[in-house]
Specification:
The chain is built from 3 helices and 3 strands. It has helices spanning 9-18, 54-64, 68-71, and strands at 22-25, 30-34, 41-45. The protein has a 3-stranded antiparallel beta sheet with strand order 1-2-3. The two termini are 17 Å apart.
């Protein structure tokens, strides 16, 4: 299994927005994103400049429908 890219929450949100996800609200330390053609929501922890941990990143990519091998291209 390929290693996931290291990125901050702001970088991840930017990549998810390019994939069609939209920030619907940003209450406190988490951003809530929705996709127009996918059911459910994606919750991204936003902690100033901290790198998202690999397990959390993997879970979010799976829920977003982005294959892990394609995530390497996000760097």
């Amino acid at each position: 299994m390929p290693r996931l890219p290291r990125m901050t929450s702001q970088e991840l949100i930017r990549h998810l927005q390019r994939a069609g996800w939209r920030v619907v609200r940003h209450p406190g330390s988490h951003a809530i994103l929705r996709h127009p053609s996918r059911a459910g929501r994606l919750v991204v922890p936003v902690h100033a400049g901290n790198i998202i941990k690999p397990k959390i990143m993997a879970r979010m990519l799976d829920k977003a429908g982005i294959a892990r091998h394609l995530a390497r291209e996000m760097e």
